[in-house]
Amino acid sequence: MKLPHDSQTFIMHCGEMGSRWGFNRTVGQICALLVITEEPLNADHIAEALSISRGNVSMGLKELQSWRLIQLSHKPGDRKEYFTASGSIWDMGQTIFEERRKREIDPTLSLLRSQLLAHEGESNYRIKRQQEIHDLLELLTNWATALGSMKPESLKSLMKLGSGVTKVLELKSKLKSK
Question: pTM value?
């Protein structure tokens, strides 16, 4: 499977960004390939397209399945497993956020809750700061959960509104400084 240069560039970039998104380079590349490829691909197609070992592909596909970012399918008369990206780009973004919340934010909130309960009634600098961190993470989690339940069209409108508010605040700040 020969990929156009622009596709290769995009896939390589996603591989480099993978570590920033919570997974390794190979997983980022596999995910990118599946996102931009219309037809389902099997592991052999993926290995050939990305010039990586079949074993690396297999591990990457398992990781993407654990993140719920790809779907498995079969073709009649073919014993191979085929993979596609799960849902729309909005769905995938929401899934990544949910998975990162489960893997990163929830354990931190759990630790903070247990420590705050163990030191209930105390009021020192460390406890106050941990309470602030807890409250911020709780607020962000609740906000993100509410956003995650919105339809993509409503979320896009809200995001556009947010950028409009930012522009108004910037203009207001410029006017004040004059």
Answer: 0.77
